[in-house]
Amino acid sequence: MMKSRRDFLQQVSGAAFAATAAPSLLAWAFPQGQEPVPFPGEPGMVLRSFRFVDLESPVAYFNTWLTPVSHFFVRNHMHEPMQFDVGEWKLTVGGEVEKPLILTLVDLHRMATHSVVNTLECAGNGRGLYRPQVPGIQWGKGAVGTGRFSGPRLRDVLNRAGVKPSGRHVMFRGRDEVPGNVPPFIRSIPLEKALDGDTLIATHMNGSPLTKHHGFPARGLVPGWIGSASCKWLTEIKVLDSEFAGNFMNPGYRLPNQPVKPGQAVKPEDTHPVTALNVKSLISAPTDGTAIRAGQTTVHGVAWAGEADVTKVEISTDGGANWSPTRLGHEQARYAWRLWSYDWKTAKPGDYTLLSRATDSRGRTQPAEAIWNPSGYLNNSIDQVRVHVE
Ligand code: MTE
Asked: With contact defined as beta carbons under 8 Å apart, do 375 and 334 qualify?
């Protein structure tokens, strides 16, 4: 084990050397600082943490409505579960229910299946771009992706168990390998969201069984909400009479009720849980630092808004003085991002900063700068890339 880890680290430093040795090639495809470090079986992904696997997608990959599973970011707070016999896997459903259940994978497969195309984004996506910097995984822009998730509705399972009137929240427990004193990955969602017809116990992603990285054999799928709500490697569902009180609910995944200054203490009672995602857009091509030929270039990107709909995406090629509408792609679903594109007739040669900003059906528009917060959550600042027109 130690040996293979050392070998891997050597491989990583070798790759970092190779990246510096051939900067021009890599700079074409990946923004500075996002050059991929190879991770076994995950070519092209940006390794953000090796101890617990955290993989980021380069933004250049966001050129399809559905993100291929091999290009989908991975966020793990701890080790993925050890190998287990799927025939032995069980999902218990208990707590404030009339009839506790023990379900096998065959039981789940026998239930009616529903599919939801959902943009899954980690609450910490863009954390590395906040200034001053905050502790935590220094995600760039690519801890987001869109997948078609399928499986039984959580509602159908809860109805089978019969939620008692005292039930208020639904707790998910993952079977992560918990190292040392780390608290287990347990979170809860309000009963109302759990009973929503689009909240799933997903067993499939993009038409295939979930991979281990993404929660095999079953995960919660809480559409439109931050990724941490969608618990992977589900092993227990429990109906509670109040919000679960563990580490990943409090102090984890909370925002101050009012903006705070860096270093300012925040009392727990002055915070609230992070739930639905913000309105946000990204420019996926051209990538930051690219040189392009004068003439016409198509600028591409993606935009999403959690539980709301994206109504427009605008682009500025003059640092924000003027904004033009972009074309939204035809593919759409309630919780999924929209592709967008814009034909840019480049003017004079020189350096340009391209900006993109999305607006949603609730009237929210991306701010020039997202509100800084101590955990670096929900960074939805207007996106920008620098390009050179030759
Ligand atoms: N579920 C478990 N059991 N353990 C985890 O560490 N990470 C959460 C969530 N579910 C996590 C989990 C977080 S923070 C995110 S953003 C999403 O899974 C990421 O899902 P993905 O790795 O399939 O992209």
From this structure: no
